[in-house]
Amino acid sequence: LALVSACLLGGTLAKYSTEVTGTGSATVAKWSFTANGATDKFDVSLVDETQTGVAEGRIAPGAKGSFAIELYANGSEVAVDYTIAFSKLTDMPDGLKFYSDSDRKNAIDDLGTYKGLNGTIALADVGTSVTKTVYWAWAEGTDAEDTAAGKNPKAGTFAVTVTGTQKTDAAAA
After folding, report:
1. Distance CA 128, CA 71 (A)
2. Smallest Cα–Cα separation from 34: which of 77, 66, 85, 69?
3. Edge-first strand listing for the sheet containing 80-90
4. Cβ proximity of 69 and 162 under 8 Å
5. What is the 3-state secondary structure (H, E, C) of the chain?
6. Angle at CA 119, nearest 5°, toward 115 and 125?
7. Distance of alpha carbon 148 from alpha carbon 141, whole angstroms
8. Comparing C-alpha atoms, which of 98, 129, 111 is closest to residue 34?
9. Main-chain phi, psi angles of 88, to 5 degrees
10. What confidence tens digit (pLDDT) does each residue in 61-120 have?
11. Do residues 116 and 84 touch, judged by C-beta distance below 8 A?
């Protein structure tokens, strides 16, 4: 009886068994972002595109022009959200205004708080540059105002901060 029980129980305890092992890996996505070809600093100058008879590198009442900021994420393997922010606007001439369009009909009331230059470079577009242009014009004032500005010229300055950040939401694809 013991011999028969051992044979029956032994057969019911047998089972198939397989063990499979593997390895894991993670490949980090490449990051690449530049503004005007730079990864740390670049310069922007207001250059008169219309007047003659004004010293190079200077502007005078009636001047107008634009400057571009070219954003590029070539080689990046993630989508990019970008912001372009202006701050520290000092000693800008009275009557100098910034615009969002080349016709200079849409004035930017406060360049320091303007958000119209922000956007996204989708993953499918990381190899294509995005150019954001700011237009400006220095409206002529009265002769007395313009003459006073020219007798005591100031060097207006402003800071530009361009930030590229990995787009992290599901819409990035």
Report:
1. 9
2. 69
3. 119-121, 80-90, 157-166
4. yes
5. CHHHHHHHHHHHCCCCCCCCCCCCCCCCCCCCCEECCECCCCCCCCCCCCCCCCCCCCCCCCCEEEEEEEEECCCCCCCEEEEEEEEEEECCCCCEEEECCCCCCCEECCHHHCCCCCEEECHHHCCCCEEEEEEEEECCCCHHHHHHHHHCCCCCEEEEEEEEEECCCHHHC
6. 165
7. 11
8. 129
9. 55, 45
10. 999 999 999 999 999 999 999 999 999 999 988 889 999 999 999 999 999 999 999 999
11. no
pLDDT band at 56 (very low <50, low <70, confident <90, very high): confident
Q: Which residue has the tokens 């970008």?
A: 82
Rounded to 5 degrees, φ, ψ at 89 are: -75, 110
- Read off the pLDDT of each residue in 22-28 and give the average, rounded to a whole number: 95
Whether 115 and 100 have beta carbons less than 8 Å apart is answered as no
CA-based end-to-end distance of the chain: 70
Q: For 38-67, what is the mean pLDDT?
A: 90
Most distant pair of Cα atoms in the chain: their distance: 124
The residue written with tokens 């400006």 in the block is 136
CA distance 148 to 47: 21
